[in-house]
């Protein structure tokens, strides 16, 4: 019964091998026949067939495939070899369809016991009128050898399959060998999802698999302990930072009434406080419910920029530089956007590499809120503009000045966290404009 089922399954496979090989050969030579039909269009109209005959001879020599072209009356006008008889049954059948404007049917499958050439014909057409046909007589020896080899491989596979099924040991052995590997694969997926307490069983396994399971469990334990130590460190650090930050804020609040610079420092203290809060959230990010959505309200970018500019105006004034506060259009953005960090980098760069006056503005452009900082320095060339924001990149004009080439890379990373982008462009009148474009929160109430 098993043998009968195997033979029944092998018959369509054998037919598929022969049909597929035949179709591949037919399609490849059909493309060549189409090319010859295209090349024959002009000679059949003009009568100048010398070049067409040379092409046919060259193709025959290169691919060992005879080619000939006939006109609408079946007269051979160009051929790669003499002695073409258009009345041969295979040729006559193919020409009947081709000269009638139809593509001949695909030839039968190339089984090893069949001989003869494959006829591939294509009509030569001009403005819908058939002028003749291009015909290839394709040798099939190599294709039939391929089919024969494929059938032999199929027969060998069939015999092997029958032997394995009859013996009846493949399935039990495979399941026994692969079960621990499947368990290991499932455990690996669990580890990648964050379940670092996942372990695999090593009981009743082969010695090699038992050693592999022990190594995996040791690795998972090390990862779990490292993650636990990381969470504990972050939690302890954030807890230890809260007290000195609170004390510093109390002292600076008393000074902020007297000095804008002190208010600037107070803003930095608040920013450090937010960083400590983020560290606290990071410490619990692996716990259940840690991925819940934030309840923070959207941030008014214009208001945040104006508050930060209070301190920067004092800094610029101390350096006798003019800082202009331009248009400030309210617009809600993601609360996680670090406006102070971004503005600090852009204003610091403008003061070091640009020239006054420096203008800061917040506008809307469609679905984006745009924070732009413009200076009136030398600006950047078109090649340099494309590199703005790359890590450690610095313009050739600024390499002698202090810096790391990371500032704008940090700005680009901060903008990307809220789905934004950074654009550098040369404004009218010279200088450089850096725009930080972030998505506008539509339902923000300004």
UniProtKB/TrEMBL annotation:
Q: In the Enzyme Commission scheme, what number(s) does this protein have?
A: 2.7.13.3
Identify the keywords attached in UniProt to this record, alphabetized: ATP-binding, Cell membrane, Hydrolase, Kinase, Magnesium, Manganese, Membrane, Nucleotide-binding, Phosphoprotein, Protein phosphatase, Stress response, Transferase, Transmembrane, Transmembrane helix, Two-component regulatory system, Virulence
- State the compartments where it is located: Cell membrane
Q: Which cofactor does it need?
A: Mn(2+); Mg(2+)
Q: Where are the transmembrane segments?
A: 150-170
Q: Does the keyword Transport apply?
A: no
Q: Which PROSITE patterns match?
A: HAMP, HIS_KIN
Write down the InterPro entries for this protein, in alphabetical order: 2C_sensor_his_kinase, HAMP_dom, HATPase_C_sf, HATPase_dom, His_kinase_dom, HisK_dim/P_dom, HisK_dim/P_sf, Sig_transdc_His_kin-like_C
Q: Report how it sits in the membrane.
A: Multi-pass membrane protein
Q: Which reaction does it catalyse?
A: ATP + protein L-histidine = ADP + protein N-phospho-L-histidine
Q: Start and end of every HAMP domain?
A: 175-228
One example of the protein's molecular function in GO is:
ATP binding
> GO cellular component terms?
plasma membrane
Alphabetized Gene3D superfamilies for the sequence: 1.10.287.130, 6.10.340.10, Histidine kinase-like ATPase, C-terminal domain
Its domain of life reads: Bacteria
Task: Give residue ranges for domain Histidine kinase.
Answer: 236-442
Q: Is Metal-binding a UniProt keyword of this protein?
A: no
Q: What is this protein called?
A: Signal transduction histidine-protein kinase/phosphatase MprB
């Amino acid at each position: 019964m098993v043998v009968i089922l195997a033979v029944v399954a092998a018959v369509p496979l054998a037919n598929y091998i022969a049909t597929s090989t035949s179709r591949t050969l037919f399609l490849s030579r059909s493309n060549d026949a189409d090319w010859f039909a295209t090349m024959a269009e002009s000679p059949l109209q003009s009568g100048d067939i010398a070049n067409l005959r040379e092409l046919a001879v060259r193709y025959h020599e290169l691919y060992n495939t005879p080619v000939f072209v006939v006109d609408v009356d079946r007269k051979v006008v160009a051929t790669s070899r003499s002695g073409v008889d258009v009345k041969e049954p295979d040729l006559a059948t193919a020409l009947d369809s081709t000269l009638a404007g139809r593509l001949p049917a695909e030839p039968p499958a190339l089984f090893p016991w069949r001989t003869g050439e494959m006829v591939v014909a294509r009509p030569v057409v001009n403005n819908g009128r058939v002028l003749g046909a291009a015909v290839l007589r394709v040798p099939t020896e190599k294709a039939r050898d391929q089919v024969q080899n494929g059938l032999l491989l199929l027969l060998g596979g069939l015999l092997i399959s029958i032997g394995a099924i009859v013996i009846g040991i493949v399935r039990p052995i495979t399941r026994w060998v692969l079960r621990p590997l499947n368990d290991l694969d499932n455990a690996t997926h669990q580890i990648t999802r964050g379940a670092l307490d996942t372990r695999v069983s090593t009981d009743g396994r082969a010695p090699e698999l038992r050693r592999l399971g022990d190594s995996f469990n040791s690795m998972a334990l090390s990862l779990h302990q490292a993650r636990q130590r990381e969470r504990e460190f972050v939690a302890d650090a954030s807890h230890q930072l809260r007290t000195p930050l609170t004390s510093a804020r109390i002292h600076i609040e008393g000074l902020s009434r007297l000095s804008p610079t002190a208010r600037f420092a107070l803003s930095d203290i608040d920013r450090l406080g937010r960083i400590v809060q983020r560290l606290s959230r990071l410490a619990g990010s692996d716990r259940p419910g840690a991925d819940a959505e934030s309840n923070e309200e959207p941030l008014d970018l214009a208001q945040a920029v104006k508050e930060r500019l209070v301190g920067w105006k004092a800094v610029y004034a101390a350096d006798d530089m003019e800082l202009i506060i331009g248009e400030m259009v309210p617009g809600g953005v993601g609360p996680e956007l670090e406006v102070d960090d971004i503005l600090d980098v852009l204003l610091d760069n403008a003061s070091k590499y640009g020239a006054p006056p420096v203008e800061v503005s917040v506008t809307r452009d469609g679905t984006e809120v745009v924070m732009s900082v413009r200076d009136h320095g030398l600006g950047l060339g078109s090649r340099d503009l494309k590199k703005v924001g790359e890590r450690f990149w610095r313009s050739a004009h600024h390499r002698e000045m202090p810096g790391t080439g990371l500032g704008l890379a940090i700005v680009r990373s901060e903008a990307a966290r809220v789905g934004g982008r950074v654009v550098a462009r040369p404004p009218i009148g010279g200088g450089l404009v850096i725009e930080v474009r972030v998505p506008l929160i539509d339902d923000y109430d300004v």
